[in-house]
Amino acid sequence: MCGQAKGSKGAGSDRPVESAPTTTAAPPPGDAATPPVSDAVRHVRSADLFGNAREVVIEHEHHRYRLKMTSRGGLILNK
Q: What is the pTM of this model?
C-alpha cells in the first residue's frame, strides 16, 4: 500500500485515505547550484559506490552490468 496512510479510512468510505506527498526542503542560500533532490531519486556519490575499486557490478532484473571508471574520470556501463 505505497502512498496510503496505514489503517486510516475516509469518512463513509471503505477506501484508505492517501497521505499527502512529502516536500523537499529548499537548499541553503549558499548552495544555489545544487538542485533539490526529489524523494523519488536516490543520490549516490561515485566515491561511495566505488570505494577504492575502479569497477562495480550492478545487478538489475537478473542481469549483471559492469560500471567502470575510466582513467580520465568518466564512467562506462557495460552489460
A: 0.48
